[in-house]
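[SOLVED] Need 3D model of a two-part complex

Original post:
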Amino acid sequence: MKELYDSISTSWQLSPGMMSLVTVLWILAIAVVVLAFMATFAGVTSWVERRIAGRMMSRIGPNRVGPGGSLQWIADGLKCFLKEDVIPQAVDKPLFRFAPYLVFAGCFAAFAALPFGYGIVASNIDIGIFYISAITTFVVLGILMAGWSSNNKWSLLGGIRSAAQIVSYEIPTGLAVLTIVVLAGTLNMQEIIKQQGGWPWYWFIFHNPFSLVAFFIFFSSILAEGNRTPFDLPEAESELVAGYLTEYSGMRFVFFFFAEWANLWVMSAIITTLFLGGWQIPGVADLGSVIEKSAGTVKYLWILASVASFFFKTLLFVFIVIWVRWTLPRLRVDQLMIMCWKYFVPIGFICLIGSALFAILPQTGAWYWFQLSIKLILTASGFGGVVILLWRSFYNIRALDDKIYFKVWE
Amino acid sequence: MVLALKNYFINIKKAFVSIFEGLAVTLSYLARKPITIQYPDRIPTPVQEMLPSTYRGVLEVDMKICTGCLACMKRCPIDIIRVDTFRDTETKKNYITRFDIDIAKCMFCGLCTEVCPTGSIRHSTEFEASSANIINMVLQYVEYGDKVPFYKPVKDQEPVSIPQNEAFRKVHKAWNAPAPIDPEKVRGQVRWKSDQSAEDKS
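Solution:
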Protein backbone atom coordinates (compact mmCIF):
# COMPACT_ATOMS: atom_id res chain seq x y z
CA MET A 1 0.00 0.00 0.00
CA LYS A 2 2.78 2.36 0.94
CA GLU A 3 4.56 1.54 -2.32
CA LEU A 4 1.54 2.66 -4.36
CA TYR A 5 1.46 5.96 -2.50
CA ASP A 6 5.20 6.44 -3.03
CA SER A 7 4.88 5.72 -6.76
CA ILE A 8 2.10 8.31 -7.04
CA SER A 9 4.21 10.92 -5.29
CA THR A 10 7.29 10.28 -7.48
CA SER A 11 5.81 9.58 -10.92
CA TRP A 12 2.89 12.01 -11.15
CA GLN A 13 5.07 15.13 -10.67
CA LEU A 14 2.44 16.94 -8.63
CA SER A 15 2.84 20.34 -7.03
CA PRO A 16 3.17 20.37 -3.19
CA GLY A 17 -0.41 21.69 -2.87
CA MET A 18 -1.86 18.92 -5.03
CA MET A 19 0.32 16.38 -3.25
CA SER A 20 -1.15 17.31 0.13
CA LEU A 21 -4.64 16.97 -1.38
CA VAL A 22 -3.71 13.48 -2.63
CA THR A 23 -2.44 12.66 0.88
CA VAL A 24 -5.69 13.75 2.48
CA LEU A 25 -7.74 11.74 -0.05
CA TRP A 26 -5.44 8.76 0.50
CA ILE A 27 -6.01 8.90 4.28
CA LEU A 28 -9.77 9.28 3.76
CA ALA A 29 -9.86 6.29 1.41
CA ILE A 30 -8.03 4.12 3.95
CA ALA A 31 -10.37 5.31 6.70
CA VAL A 32 -13.39 4.37 4.56
CA VAL A 33 -11.97 0.91 3.83
CA VAL A 34 -11.27 0.29 7.52
CA LEU A 35 -14.70 1.61 8.48
CA ALA A 36 -16.36 -0.68 5.94
CA PHE A 37 -14.45 -3.65 7.34
CA MET A 38 -15.34 -2.69 10.90
CA ALA A 39 -19.03 -2.22 10.07
CA THR A 40 -19.30 -5.53 8.24
CA PHE A 41 -17.42 -7.38 10.95
CA ALA A 42 -19.53 -5.86 13.75
CA GLY A 43 -22.73 -6.69 11.89
CA VAL A 44 -21.87 -10.26 10.97
CA THR A 45 -20.49 -10.92 14.45
CA SER A 46 -23.76 -9.79 16.00
CA TRP A 47 -25.50 -12.55 14.02
CA VAL A 48 -22.77 -15.14 14.65
CA GLU A 49 -22.81 -14.43 18.37
CA ARG A 50 -26.57 -14.85 18.57
CA ARG A 51 -26.38 -18.13 16.66
CA ILE A 52 -23.61 -19.49 18.88
CA ALA A 53 -25.45 -18.31 22.00
CA GLY A 54 -28.57 -20.03 20.75
CA ARG A 55 -26.88 -23.35 20.16
CA MET A 56 -25.12 -23.23 23.53
CA MET A 57 -28.56 -22.84 25.13
CA SER A 58 -30.09 -25.65 23.01
CA ARG A 59 -31.95 -23.03 20.98
CA ILE A 60 -31.49 -22.26 17.29
CA GLY A 61 -31.12 -18.48 17.20
CA PRO A 62 -32.18 -16.12 14.41
CA ASN A 63 -32.61 -18.20 11.24
CA ARG A 64 -35.34 -16.56 9.16
CA VAL A 65 -33.75 -13.59 7.37
CA GLY A 66 -31.63 -14.93 4.52
CA PRO A 67 -30.00 -18.37 4.51
CA GLY A 68 -29.62 -19.43 8.13
CA GLY A 69 -30.56 -15.93 9.24
CA SER A 70 -27.31 -14.51 7.86
CA LEU A 71 -28.94 -11.22 6.82
CA GLN A 72 -30.43 -10.65 10.26
CA TRP A 73 -27.86 -7.97 11.06
CA ILE A 74 -28.91 -5.88 8.04
CA ALA A 75 -32.55 -6.12 9.09
CA ASP A 76 -31.68 -5.13 12.65
CA GLY A 77 -29.52 -2.24 11.49
CA LEU A 78 -32.25 -0.92 9.19
CA LYS A 79 -34.82 -1.25 11.94
CA CYS A 80 -32.73 0.76 14.38
CA PHE A 81 -31.92 3.30 11.67
CA LEU A 82 -35.63 3.97 11.05
CA LYS A 83 -36.53 4.17 14.72
CA GLU A 84 -37.23 7.46 16.41
CA ASP A 85 -34.23 8.92 18.20
CA VAL A 86 -35.80 9.56 21.61
CA ILE A 87 -33.96 12.11 23.74
CA PRO A 88 -35.57 12.42 27.20
CA GLN A 89 -36.39 15.89 28.58
CA ALA A 90 -34.10 15.82 31.59
CA VAL A 91 -30.86 14.71 29.90
CA ASP A 92 -27.83 16.88 29.34
CA LYS A 93 -28.50 17.13 25.61
CA PRO A 94 -25.07 17.98 24.09
CA LEU A 95 -23.27 15.32 26.12
CA PHE A 96 -26.05 12.77 25.54
CA ARG A 97 -25.80 13.28 21.78
CA PHE A 98 -22.01 13.24 21.71
CA ALA A 99 -21.32 10.20 23.93
CA PRO A 100 -22.06 7.41 21.38
CA TYR A 101 -19.72 9.00 18.83
CA LEU A 102 -16.93 9.19 21.39
CA VAL A 103 -17.31 5.47 22.19
CA PHE A 104 -17.36 4.69 18.49
CA ALA A 105 -14.38 6.93 17.71
CA GLY A 106 -12.33 5.39 20.52
CA CYS A 107 -12.89 1.94 19.10
CA PHE A 108 -12.41 3.00 15.47
CA ALA A 109 -9.16 4.81 16.19
CA ALA A 110 -7.65 1.58 17.51
CA PHE A 111 -8.02 0.07 14.03
CA ALA A 112 -5.44 2.56 12.73
CA ALA A 113 -2.53 0.66 14.28
CA LEU A 114 -3.90 -2.88 14.05
CA PRO A 115 -2.14 -5.15 11.56
CA PHE A 116 -4.20 -7.25 9.13
CA GLY A 117 -1.35 -9.04 7.39
CA TYR A 118 2.27 -8.59 6.37
CA GLY A 119 2.72 -4.86 5.76
CA ILE A 120 -1.06 -4.30 5.76
CA VAL A 121 -1.67 -1.76 8.49
CA ALA A 122 -3.33 1.63 8.22
CA SER A 123 -0.54 3.38 10.07
CA ASN A 124 2.70 1.56 10.87
CA ILE A 125 3.64 3.71 13.86
CA ASP A 126 6.54 2.78 16.14
CA ILE A 127 4.48 3.06 19.33
CA GLY A 128 1.68 0.84 17.99
CA ILE A 129 0.67 -1.14 21.07
CA PHE A 130 1.14 1.87 23.33
CA TYR A 131 -1.13 3.92 21.07
CA ILE A 132 -3.78 1.20 21.08
CA SER A 133 -3.79 0.86 24.88
CA ALA A 134 -4.09 4.63 25.15
CA ILE A 135 -6.76 5.21 22.51
CA THR A 136 -9.08 2.37 23.61
CA THR A 137 -9.36 4.14 26.98
CA PHE A 138 -11.33 6.79 25.07
CA VAL A 139 -14.24 4.39 25.25
CA VAL A 140 -14.55 4.79 29.02
CA LEU A 141 -14.83 8.54 28.57
CA GLY A 142 -17.81 8.04 26.26
CA ILE A 143 -19.43 5.51 28.56
CA LEU A 144 -19.01 7.74 31.60
CA MET A 145 -20.38 10.66 29.57
CA ALA A 146 -23.40 8.59 28.53
CA GLY A 147 -23.96 7.48 32.10
CA TRP A 148 -23.77 10.97 33.54
CA SER A 149 -25.73 12.84 30.88
CA SER A 150 -28.64 10.37 30.89
CA ASN A 151 -29.71 11.71 34.29
CA ASN A 152 -30.77 8.25 35.34
CA LYS A 153 -29.64 6.23 38.33
CA TRP A 154 -29.05 3.05 36.32
CA SER A 155 -27.02 4.89 33.72
CA LEU A 156 -24.91 6.69 36.27
CA LEU A 157 -24.16 3.48 38.18
CA GLY A 158 -23.23 1.77 34.92
CA GLY A 159 -20.95 4.62 33.91
CA ILE A 160 -19.21 4.69 37.28
CA ARG A 161 -18.74 0.93 37.29
CA SER A 162 -17.25 1.10 33.82
CA ALA A 163 -14.83 3.81 34.86
CA ALA A 164 -13.73 1.91 37.96
CA GLN A 165 -13.37 -1.29 35.97
CA ILE A 166 -11.38 0.10 33.06
CA VAL A 167 -9.08 2.20 35.26
CA SER A 168 -8.31 -0.85 37.43
CA TYR A 169 -7.80 -3.27 34.57
CA GLU A 170 -5.53 -0.93 32.61
CA ILE A 171 -2.77 -1.93 35.05
CA PRO A 172 -2.73 -5.74 34.52
CA THR A 173 -3.25 -5.15 30.79
CA GLY A 174 -0.29 -2.81 30.73
CA LEU A 175 1.86 -5.25 32.72
CA ALA A 176 1.01 -8.13 30.38
CA VAL A 177 1.75 -6.00 27.33
CA LEU A 178 5.02 -4.94 28.92
CA THR A 179 5.95 -8.60 29.43
CA ILE A 180 5.76 -9.08 25.66
CA VAL A 181 7.41 -5.75 24.89
CA VAL A 182 10.39 -6.81 27.02
CA LEU A 183 10.71 -10.00 24.94
CA ALA A 184 10.20 -8.26 21.59
CA GLY A 185 12.17 -5.12 22.33
CA THR A 186 9.78 -2.95 20.32
CA LEU A 187 6.32 -1.36 20.50
CA ASN A 188 5.67 -1.58 16.75
CA MET A 189 2.95 -4.12 15.99
CA GLN A 190 4.57 -5.41 12.79
CA GLU A 191 7.98 -5.70 14.46
CA ILE A 192 6.47 -7.64 17.39
CA ILE A 193 5.09 -10.17 14.87
CA LYS A 194 8.41 -10.36 13.03
CA GLN A 195 10.16 -11.22 16.32
CA GLN A 196 8.06 -14.41 16.52
CA GLY A 197 8.61 -17.44 14.33
CA GLY A 198 6.21 -19.61 12.39
CA TRP A 199 5.97 -22.64 14.66
CA PRO A 200 3.84 -22.31 17.82
CA TRP A 201 6.85 -22.76 20.10
CA TYR A 202 8.37 -19.61 18.67
CA TRP A 203 5.27 -17.60 19.53
CA PHE A 204 5.47 -15.37 22.58
CA ILE A 205 2.66 -17.25 24.36
CA PHE A 206 4.96 -20.28 24.74
CA HIS A 207 8.21 -18.30 25.02
CA ASN A 208 8.53 -19.00 28.76
CA PRO A 209 6.20 -19.91 31.65
CA PHE A 210 5.81 -16.26 32.61
CA SER A 211 4.58 -15.19 29.20
CA LEU A 212 2.03 -18.03 29.27
CA VAL A 213 0.67 -16.69 32.57
CA ALA A 214 0.78 -13.17 31.12
CA PHE A 215 -1.39 -14.42 28.26
CA PHE A 216 -4.14 -15.50 30.66
CA ILE A 217 -3.88 -12.22 32.57
CA PHE A 218 -4.03 -10.24 29.34
CA PHE A 219 -6.99 -12.21 28.01
CA SER A 220 -8.99 -11.76 31.22
CA SER A 221 -8.21 -8.09 31.65
CA ILE A 222 -8.89 -7.20 28.04
CA LEU A 223 -12.30 -8.84 28.43
CA ALA A 224 -12.84 -6.53 31.40
CA GLU A 225 -11.72 -3.54 29.38
CA GLY A 226 -14.07 -4.40 26.55
CA ASN A 227 -16.98 -4.77 29.00
CA ARG A 228 -17.58 -8.34 27.89
CA THR A 229 -19.19 -10.95 30.11
CA PRO A 230 -18.15 -12.06 32.77
CA PHE A 231 -17.10 -8.44 33.30
CA ASP A 232 -20.15 -6.72 31.81
CA LEU A 233 -21.03 -4.96 35.07
CA PRO A 234 -21.61 -1.57 33.38
CA GLU A 235 -24.59 -2.92 31.44
CA ALA A 236 -25.66 -5.68 33.84
CA GLU A 237 -29.22 -6.42 32.68
CA SER A 238 -30.33 -8.04 35.91
CA GLU A 239 -29.24 -5.14 38.09
CA LEU A 240 -29.04 -1.97 36.01
CA VAL A 241 -31.68 -2.48 33.28
CA ALA A 242 -29.09 -1.75 30.57
CA GLY A 243 -26.59 0.39 32.49
CA TYR A 244 -25.33 3.39 30.58
CA LEU A 245 -27.46 2.38 27.57
CA THR A 246 -30.78 2.67 29.43
CA GLU A 247 -31.95 5.98 27.94
CA TYR A 248 -30.64 5.40 24.44
CA SER A 249 -32.69 4.27 21.46
CA GLY A 250 -32.47 4.05 17.69
CA MET A 251 -29.19 4.80 15.94
CA ARG A 252 -27.37 6.06 19.03
CA PHE A 253 -28.08 2.74 20.74
CA VAL A 254 -26.65 0.91 17.74
CA PHE A 255 -23.46 2.97 17.87
CA PHE A 256 -22.69 1.58 21.33
CA PHE A 257 -23.21 -1.99 20.18
CA PHE A 258 -21.31 -1.32 16.99
CA ALA A 259 -18.34 -0.31 19.13
CA GLU A 260 -18.78 -3.35 21.37
CA TRP A 261 -18.62 -5.85 18.51
CA ALA A 262 -15.85 -4.00 16.72
CA ASN A 263 -14.00 -4.08 20.03
CA LEU A 264 -14.21 -7.86 19.81
CA TRP A 265 -11.99 -7.71 16.74
CA VAL A 266 -9.65 -5.20 18.38
CA MET A 267 -9.01 -7.40 21.40
CA SER A 268 -8.66 -10.58 19.39
CA ALA A 269 -6.27 -8.89 16.96
CA ILE A 270 -4.12 -7.60 19.84
CA ILE A 271 -3.97 -11.06 21.40
CA THR A 272 -3.06 -12.58 18.04
CA THR A 273 -0.35 -10.00 17.46
CA LEU A 274 1.23 -10.13 20.90
CA PHE A 275 0.95 -13.81 21.76
CA LEU A 276 0.05 -15.95 18.75
CA GLY A 277 2.57 -14.83 16.17
CA GLY A 278 0.22 -12.55 14.23
CA TRP A 279 0.37 -13.37 10.52
CA GLN A 280 3.08 -16.03 10.91
CA ILE A 281 2.14 -19.36 9.34
CA PRO A 282 3.12 -22.62 11.10
CA GLY A 283 5.55 -24.45 8.83
CA VAL A 284 7.11 -21.30 7.37
CA ALA A 285 10.13 -20.49 9.51
CA ASP A 286 10.23 -16.74 8.91
CA LEU A 287 7.42 -15.38 6.73
CA GLY A 288 8.71 -11.80 6.88
CA SER A 289 12.01 -12.55 5.16
CA VAL A 290 10.29 -14.94 2.71
CA ILE A 291 8.00 -12.13 1.54
CA GLU A 292 10.84 -9.64 1.32
CA LYS A 293 12.87 -11.99 -0.90
CA SER A 294 10.01 -12.92 -3.28
CA ALA A 295 8.61 -10.63 -5.97
CA GLY A 296 5.63 -10.19 -8.28
CA THR A 297 2.59 -12.44 -8.00
CA VAL A 298 4.30 -14.82 -5.57
CA LYS A 299 4.82 -11.96 -3.17
CA TYR A 300 1.15 -10.99 -3.26
CA LEU A 301 0.12 -14.62 -2.74
CA TRP A 302 2.37 -14.79 0.33
CA ILE A 303 0.87 -11.56 1.63
CA LEU A 304 -2.61 -13.01 1.04
CA ALA A 305 -1.58 -16.12 2.97
CA SER A 306 -0.37 -13.95 5.85
CA VAL A 307 -3.74 -12.14 5.89
CA ALA A 308 -5.56 -15.49 5.93
CA SER A 309 -3.39 -16.70 8.79
CA PHE A 310 -4.02 -13.54 10.80
CA PHE A 311 -7.76 -13.69 10.18
CA PHE A 312 -7.91 -17.35 11.17
CA LYS A 313 -6.19 -16.76 14.48
CA THR A 314 -8.20 -13.62 15.23
CA LEU A 315 -11.56 -15.20 14.39
CA LEU A 316 -10.62 -18.17 16.58
CA PHE A 317 -10.20 -15.76 19.47
CA VAL A 318 -13.43 -13.96 18.58
CA PHE A 319 -15.10 -17.34 18.96
CA ILE A 320 -13.39 -17.98 22.29
CA VAL A 321 -14.51 -14.59 23.62
CA ILE A 322 -18.11 -15.36 22.59
CA TRP A 323 -17.78 -18.83 24.08
CA VAL A 324 -16.55 -17.42 27.41
CA ARG A 325 -19.40 -14.92 27.39
CA TRP A 326 -22.03 -17.65 27.24
CA THR A 327 -20.26 -19.81 29.81
CA LEU A 328 -19.40 -17.69 32.81
CA PRO A 329 -21.78 -15.78 35.06
CA ARG A 330 -21.23 -12.11 35.82
CA LEU A 331 -18.86 -11.19 38.66
CA ARG A 332 -19.80 -8.99 41.60
CA VAL A 333 -18.11 -5.61 41.89
CA ASP A 334 -16.04 -6.66 44.91
CA GLN A 335 -15.00 -9.89 43.18
CA LEU A 336 -13.97 -7.85 40.17
CA MET A 337 -11.74 -5.65 42.27
CA ILE A 338 -10.31 -8.60 44.25
CA MET A 339 -9.43 -10.33 41.01
CA CYS A 340 -7.65 -7.28 39.68
CA TRP A 341 -5.74 -6.05 42.71
CA LYS A 342 -5.07 -9.28 44.59
CA TYR A 343 -4.39 -11.61 41.71
CA PHE A 344 -3.72 -9.99 38.36
CA VAL A 345 -1.52 -7.08 39.44
CA PRO A 346 0.96 -9.01 41.68
CA ILE A 347 1.12 -11.96 39.30
CA GLY A 348 1.54 -9.51 36.42
CA PHE A 349 4.57 -8.00 38.12
CA ILE A 350 6.09 -11.43 38.71
CA CYS A 351 5.54 -12.25 35.04
CA LEU A 352 7.23 -9.02 33.99
CA ILE A 353 10.31 -9.72 36.10
CA GLY A 354 10.45 -13.38 35.10
CA SER A 355 10.14 -12.57 31.43
CA ALA A 356 12.84 -9.94 31.74
CA LEU A 357 15.14 -12.60 33.22
CA PHE A 358 14.40 -14.89 30.27
CA ALA A 359 15.03 -12.02 27.85
CA ILE A 360 18.61 -11.55 29.10
CA LEU A 361 19.51 -15.26 28.86
CA PRO A 362 22.20 -15.88 26.24
CA GLN A 363 21.07 -17.59 23.03
CA THR A 364 24.11 -19.84 22.65
CA GLY A 365 25.15 -23.39 23.52
CA ALA A 366 23.42 -25.13 26.40
CA TRP A 367 21.29 -22.03 27.12
CA TYR A 368 19.71 -22.29 23.69
CA TRP A 369 18.73 -25.92 24.19
CA PHE A 370 17.44 -25.13 27.69
CA GLN A 371 15.13 -22.41 26.33
CA LEU A 372 14.00 -24.48 23.37
CA SER A 373 13.09 -27.42 25.61
CA ILE A 374 11.02 -25.09 27.84
CA LYS A 375 9.23 -23.76 24.75
CA LEU A 376 8.53 -27.26 23.47
CA ILE A 377 7.23 -28.43 26.86
CA LEU A 378 4.94 -25.40 27.14
CA THR A 379 3.64 -25.90 23.60
CA ALA A 380 2.97 -29.57 24.24
CA SER A 381 1.14 -28.81 27.49
CA GLY A 382 -0.85 -26.02 25.81
CA PHE A 383 -2.05 -28.24 22.99
CA GLY A 384 -2.57 -31.05 25.49
CA GLY A 385 -4.90 -28.75 27.42
CA VAL A 386 -6.89 -28.06 24.26
CA VAL A 387 -7.15 -31.79 23.55
CA ILE A 388 -8.33 -32.48 27.12
CA LEU A 389 -10.91 -29.71 26.78
CA LEU A 390 -12.26 -31.26 23.57
CA TRP A 391 -12.26 -34.69 25.18
CA ARG A 392 -14.18 -33.33 28.19
CA SER A 393 -16.77 -31.80 25.83
CA PHE A 394 -17.12 -35.09 24.00
CA TYR A 395 -17.43 -36.86 27.34
CA ASN A 396 -20.25 -34.49 28.33
CA ILE A 397 -22.13 -35.38 25.16
CA ARG A 398 -21.52 -39.11 25.53
CA ALA A 399 -22.42 -39.19 29.24
CA LEU A 400 -26.01 -38.29 28.40
CA ASP A 401 -26.16 -40.66 25.41
CA ASP A 402 -26.42 -37.69 23.07
CA LYS A 403 -25.03 -37.54 19.57
CA ILE A 404 -22.88 -34.92 17.93
CA TYR A 405 -25.17 -32.81 15.77
CA PHE A 406 -23.86 -29.78 13.99
CA LYS A 407 -25.90 -28.12 11.27
CA VAL A 408 -24.81 -24.52 10.78
CA TRP A 409 -27.50 -23.50 8.29
CA GLU A 410 -30.45 -24.82 10.20
CA MET B 1 -0.10 -16.23 56.87
CA VAL B 2 0.70 -19.64 55.47
CA LEU B 3 -3.00 -20.46 55.39
CA ALA B 4 -3.79 -17.23 53.52
CA LEU B 5 -1.07 -18.02 51.00
CA LYS B 6 -2.41 -21.56 50.64
CA ASN B 7 -5.92 -20.25 50.05
CA TYR B 8 -4.55 -17.83 47.47
CA PHE B 9 -3.20 -20.66 45.32
CA ILE B 10 -6.25 -22.86 45.97
CA ASN B 11 -8.42 -20.03 44.64
CA ILE B 12 -6.35 -19.79 41.46
CA LYS B 13 -6.58 -23.56 40.96
CA LYS B 14 -10.34 -23.53 41.57
CA ALA B 15 -10.83 -20.70 39.11
CA PHE B 16 -8.91 -22.57 36.42
CA VAL B 17 -10.64 -25.90 36.96
CA SER B 18 -14.16 -24.45 37.13
CA ILE B 19 -13.70 -22.28 34.03
CA PHE B 20 -12.17 -25.23 32.17
CA GLU B 21 -15.07 -27.55 33.03
CA GLY B 22 -17.61 -24.82 32.31
CA LEU B 23 -16.17 -24.22 28.86
CA ALA B 24 -16.28 -27.96 28.17
CA VAL B 25 -19.98 -28.07 29.10
CA THR B 26 -21.00 -25.16 26.88
CA LEU B 27 -18.91 -26.44 23.98
CA SER B 28 -20.67 -29.79 24.25
CA TYR B 29 -24.04 -28.04 23.98
CA LEU B 30 -22.82 -26.20 20.88
CA ALA B 31 -22.43 -29.57 19.18
CA ARG B 32 -25.79 -31.00 20.26
CA LYS B 33 -29.19 -30.95 18.66
CA PRO B 34 -31.28 -27.93 19.69
CA ILE B 35 -34.61 -28.80 21.30
CA THR B 36 -36.49 -25.91 19.69
CA ILE B 37 -39.72 -26.81 17.89
CA GLN B 38 -40.09 -24.30 15.08
CA TYR B 39 -43.88 -23.92 15.19
CA PRO B 40 -45.72 -23.50 12.88
CA ASP B 41 -43.88 -24.01 9.58
CA ARG B 42 -40.68 -25.99 10.19
CA ILE B 43 -41.82 -29.06 12.12
CA PRO B 44 -41.71 -32.68 10.94
CA THR B 45 -45.18 -33.56 12.31
CA PRO B 46 -47.99 -31.06 12.96
CA VAL B 47 -48.52 -30.14 16.61
CA GLN B 48 -52.10 -31.46 16.40
CA GLU B 49 -50.73 -34.95 15.87
CA MET B 50 -48.14 -34.67 18.65
CA LEU B 51 -50.77 -33.74 21.26
CA PRO B 52 -52.39 -36.53 23.30
CA SER B 53 -55.90 -37.56 22.19
CA THR B 54 -57.25 -36.43 25.58
CA TYR B 55 -56.23 -32.84 24.80
CA ARG B 56 -59.15 -30.41 25.22
CA GLY B 57 -59.20 -28.78 21.83
CA VAL B 58 -62.06 -27.31 19.85
CA LEU B 59 -65.34 -29.29 20.10
CA GLU B 60 -66.24 -31.46 17.16
CA VAL B 61 -69.31 -33.58 16.41
CA ASP B 62 -69.39 -36.85 14.52
CA MET B 63 -72.88 -36.53 12.99
CA LYS B 64 -72.95 -40.21 11.96
CA ILE B 65 -73.29 -41.35 15.57
CA CYS B 66 -75.30 -38.43 16.98
CA THR B 67 -78.52 -39.69 18.58
CA GLY B 68 -80.12 -36.25 18.70
CA CYS B 69 -80.77 -36.58 22.42
CA LEU B 70 -80.01 -32.86 23.04
CA ALA B 71 -78.15 -33.80 26.26
CA CYS B 72 -75.15 -31.66 25.29
CA MET B 73 -77.33 -28.63 24.52
CA LYS B 74 -79.04 -28.90 27.90
CA ARG B 75 -75.79 -29.53 29.78
CA CYS B 76 -73.85 -26.60 28.34
CA PRO B 77 -73.57 -23.99 31.12
CA ILE B 78 -73.26 -21.06 28.71
CA ASP B 79 -75.57 -22.31 25.94
CA ILE B 80 -73.21 -22.27 23.04
CA ILE B 81 -74.63 -25.45 21.48
CA ARG B 82 -77.85 -25.26 19.46
CA VAL B 83 -79.44 -28.43 18.05
CA ASP B 84 -82.68 -28.36 16.07
CA THR B 85 -84.54 -31.58 15.34
CA PHE B 86 -87.37 -32.29 12.99
CA ARG B 87 -89.79 -35.24 12.75
CA ASP B 88 -91.05 -36.34 9.36
CA THR B 89 -94.69 -37.20 10.05
CA GLU B 90 -95.06 -39.32 6.91
CA THR B 91 -92.10 -41.66 7.33
CA LYS B 92 -92.03 -41.16 11.13
CA LYS B 93 -88.28 -40.55 11.07
CA ASN B 94 -86.29 -38.05 13.13
CA TYR B 95 -83.72 -35.72 11.65
CA ILE B 96 -81.24 -33.18 12.94
CA THR B 97 -81.47 -29.98 10.91
CA ARG B 98 -79.03 -27.85 12.81
CA PHE B 99 -76.03 -28.49 15.05
CA ASP B 100 -74.21 -25.22 15.77
CA ILE B 101 -71.38 -24.70 18.26
CA ASP B 102 -70.21 -21.16 18.93
CA ILE B 103 -66.54 -21.82 19.72
CA ALA B 104 -65.91 -18.11 20.27
CA LYS B 105 -67.74 -18.52 23.58
CA CYS B 106 -66.66 -22.09 24.42
CA MET B 107 -64.60 -22.38 27.59
CA PHE B 108 -63.51 -26.00 27.02
CA CYS B 109 -65.10 -27.30 30.25
CA GLY B 110 -65.88 -30.63 28.61
CA LEU B 111 -69.28 -31.14 30.29
CA CYS B 112 -71.02 -31.82 26.95
CA THR B 113 -68.57 -34.62 26.13
CA GLU B 114 -69.29 -36.30 29.46
CA VAL B 115 -73.04 -36.53 28.94
CA CYS B 116 -72.93 -37.65 25.30
CA PRO B 117 -74.16 -41.29 25.20
CA THR B 118 -72.23 -42.27 22.06
CA GLY B 119 -69.18 -40.03 22.22
CA SER B 120 -70.36 -38.11 19.21
CA ILE B 121 -69.46 -34.70 20.62
CA ARG B 122 -65.85 -34.65 21.78
CA HIS B 123 -62.73 -32.56 21.98
CA SER B 124 -60.45 -32.56 18.98
CA THR B 125 -56.73 -31.75 19.25
CA GLU B 126 -57.19 -28.72 17.02
CA PHE B 127 -56.43 -25.33 18.53
CA GLU B 128 -55.90 -23.03 15.56
CA ALA B 129 -59.53 -21.93 15.22
CA SER B 130 -59.25 -18.16 15.44
CA SER B 131 -60.96 -16.12 12.73
CA ALA B 132 -61.10 -12.57 11.43
CA ASN B 133 -64.93 -12.76 11.32
CA ILE B 134 -66.54 -13.84 14.55
CA ILE B 135 -69.54 -15.23 12.71
CA ASN B 136 -67.25 -17.83 11.13
CA MET B 137 -66.53 -19.19 14.58
CA VAL B 138 -69.99 -20.69 14.73
CA LEU B 139 -69.20 -24.19 13.53
CA GLN B 140 -72.13 -25.65 11.58
CA TYR B 141 -71.88 -29.41 11.80
CA VAL B 142 -75.13 -29.71 9.80
CA GLU B 143 -75.12 -27.61 6.68
CA TYR B 144 -77.99 -25.23 6.05
CA GLY B 145 -80.88 -27.02 4.35
CA ASP B 146 -79.38 -30.42 5.12
CA LYS B 147 -80.84 -33.00 7.43
CA VAL B 148 -79.10 -35.86 9.22
CA PRO B 149 -81.04 -38.88 10.54
CA PHE B 150 -80.73 -39.85 14.18
CA TYR B 151 -78.31 -42.62 15.04
CA LYS B 152 -79.95 -45.68 16.62
CA PRO B 153 -77.61 -47.42 19.07
CA VAL B 154 -77.22 -51.17 18.51
CA LYS B 155 -77.11 -53.35 21.61
CA ASP B 156 -73.71 -54.71 22.69
CA GLN B 157 -71.95 -52.81 19.93
CA GLU B 158 -69.72 -49.76 20.26
CA PRO B 159 -70.60 -46.95 17.84
CA VAL B 160 -67.97 -46.58 15.11
CA SER B 161 -66.77 -43.01 14.85
CA ILE B 162 -64.65 -41.24 12.26
CA PRO B 163 -61.05 -40.37 13.25
CA GLN B 164 -60.43 -37.44 15.57
CA ASN B 165 -60.15 -33.94 14.04
CA GLU B 166 -61.75 -34.97 10.74
CA ALA B 167 -65.21 -33.61 11.55
CA PHE B 168 -63.69 -30.31 12.65
CA ARG B 169 -61.53 -29.95 9.55
CA LYS B 170 -64.60 -30.44 7.35
CA VAL B 171 -66.52 -27.48 8.79
CA HIS B 172 -63.68 -25.16 9.79
CA LYS B 173 -63.14 -22.13 7.58
CA ALA B 174 -59.76 -20.41 7.07
CA TRP B 175 -58.98 -17.57 9.46
CA ASN B 176 -59.33 -14.95 6.74
CA ALA B 177 -62.51 -16.38 5.18
CA PRO B 178 -65.03 -13.61 4.46
CA ALA B 179 -68.27 -13.41 6.40
CA PRO B 180 -71.11 -15.21 4.58
CA ILE B 181 -73.03 -12.93 2.20
CA ASP B 182 -76.37 -14.65 2.79
CA PRO B 183 -77.12 -14.22 6.50
CA GLU B 184 -80.03 -16.61 6.20
CA LYS B 185 -77.57 -19.45 5.69
CA VAL B 186 -75.91 -18.79 9.03
CA ARG B 187 -79.08 -18.06 10.96
CA GLY B 188 -77.16 -15.83 13.28
CA GLN B 189 -74.90 -16.86 16.10
CA VAL B 190 -76.07 -19.20 18.79
CA ARG B 191 -78.46 -17.23 20.96
CA TRP B 192 -78.55 -17.04 24.70
CA LYS B 193 -81.27 -18.97 26.51
CA SER B 194 -83.43 -15.87 27.02
CA ASP B 195 -83.31 -15.10 23.29
CA GLN B 196 -84.13 -18.68 22.45
CA SER B 197 -87.21 -18.76 24.64
CA ALA B 198 -88.36 -15.46 23.18
CA GLU B 199 -87.91 -16.92 19.70
CA ASP B 200 -89.83 -20.06 20.61
CA LYS B 201 -92.77 -18.05 21.95
CA SER B 202 -93.17 -15.94 18.83
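Edit: The interface with chain B takes residues 52, 54-60, 323-324, 326-328, 342-343, 385, 389-390, 392-397, 402-406, 410 of chain A (CB under 8 Å).
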